[in-house]
Design a protein that fits this description.
The protein is mostly helical. It contains 7 helices and no strands. The chain has a single domain, classed as Phosphate transport system protein phou homolog 2, domain 2 (Methane Monooxygenase Hydroxylase, Chain G, domain 1, Up-down Bundle).
């Protein structure tokens, strides 16, 4: 296992190499903050029936896409010009994987924003908003924790995020069952309730992507791929 003390990414002979890595990390965190803000804005647009805010979030997805392209270009530049090895190569590879998850979180926020715009035009759904807010707060916390773990090169919070993802899955299933039962009892608002159902599904996917980022933080620091492995196995990797 690599020594965590050697994960600073700031002690290369080439100062420009250090600058390249620092800029890559900074842009990744910038993108992470952007998509987290978009998720928050999209949910607020839904709850407050604010179509204009929904449009702002929807249109803001273009900035996320542009930042993804910039980060991909930076990562390619580092691999081609610097030929990183060991810890640095893991960092670059992990960022390439994680930025794809951030872009997909941005897509989910855009999806929520579009549905919020539709509901602002048609009128609010009669059920599901409390559940949406609860799950949204949960997955936003997971994303913030994953970004913080990346920034501090600390794999330990990643274990908690992996466990939280299972809780979010259960919360989503319970909320979906409750909403489905309501629709069966009152068919007048099926269309609106289905929009809320899709929003709940989008938030559950945000949690999945946050979990993916957490798993890649473990890979970046520990050099072990914990995807598709039991959480207990990941705990052993981090604790060893």
């Amino acid at each position: 296992m690599p020594d965590k003390k050697d994960m600073s990414h700031g002690d290369h002979i080439s100062a420009k190499f250090d600058e390249d890595l620092a800029e890559l990390k900074a842009n990744f965190l910038k993108m992470g903050g952007m998509v987290e803000s978009h998720v928050a804005g999209a949910v607020t647009a839904l709850v407050e029936n604010d179509g204009h805010l929904g449009e702002k979030v929807r249109d803001g997805d273009k900035q996320v896409d542009q930042l993804e392209l910039l980060i991909d270009e930076e990562a390619t530049h580092i691999i081609a010009r610097r030929q990183p090895t060991a810890r640095d190569l893991r960092l670059v590879i992990a960022v390439i994987k994680m930025v794809a998850d951030l872009e997909r979180i941005g897509d989910e926020a855009k999806k929520i924003a579009k549905l919020a715009i539709t509901l602002a035009e048609e009128g609010k759904a009669p059920r599901g908003y409390v559940e949406v807010q609860h799950i949204a707060n949960h997955v936003r916390g997971m994303l913030r924790d994953a970004l913080d773990a990346f920034a501090r090169l600390d794999p330990e919070p990643a274990i908690g995020i992996m466990k939280e993802d299972k809780r979010v899955d259960e919360e989503y299933k319970a909320a979906a069952r409750s909403l489905l039962t309501f629709m069966m009892e009152d068919t007048r608002n099926i269309s609106k309730c289905m929009s809320v159902m899709w929003i709940l599904r989008a938030l559950e996917r945000v949690g999945d992507h946050a979990c993916n980022i957490a798993e890649n933080v473990i890979y970046m620091v520990e050099g072990e791929d914990v995807r598709h492995k039991p959480t207990k196995w990941a705990e052993q990797v981090v604790g060893s």
